[in-house]
């Protein structure tokens, strides 16, 4: 393949990538994902959701009892 063929192939792949990204952004806008950007950022600072200093996310293990996290609700 000549050098020009590689350039055309790269341009085709770049165009497909651009069209895919544009389609995903259009779908997200149409679904209302960009309508309220503030509420999602406030939930990470809500004291009721995740208290400061308490770890609420853990690396998954085979045995859930091995986790040294806060007590679960109902325990």
What does the secondary structure layout of this molecule look like, with pairings?
Blueprint: H1 3-30, H2 37-43
Tag the structure with descriptive keywords.
mainly alpha
Structural overview:
The chain is mainly α and 75 residues long. Helix content is 47%, strand content 0%. The mean pLDDT is 76.
Order of helices and strands: HH
Beta percentage is: under 5%
Shape: elongated
Structural class: mainly alpha
Summarize the structure.
With 75 residues, the protein is an all-alpha fold. The chain has two helices and no strands. The chain has a domain at 1-29.
């Amino acid at each position: 393949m000549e050098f020009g063929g590689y350039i055309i192939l790269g341009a085709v792949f770049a165009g497909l990538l651009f069209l895919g990204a544009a389609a995903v952004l259009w779908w997200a806008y149409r679904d209302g994902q960009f309508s309220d950007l503030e509420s999602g950022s406030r939930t990470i600072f809500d004291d009721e959701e995740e208290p400061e200093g308490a770890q609420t996310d853990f690396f998954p293990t085979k045995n859930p009892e091995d986790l040294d996290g806060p007590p679960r609700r109902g325990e």
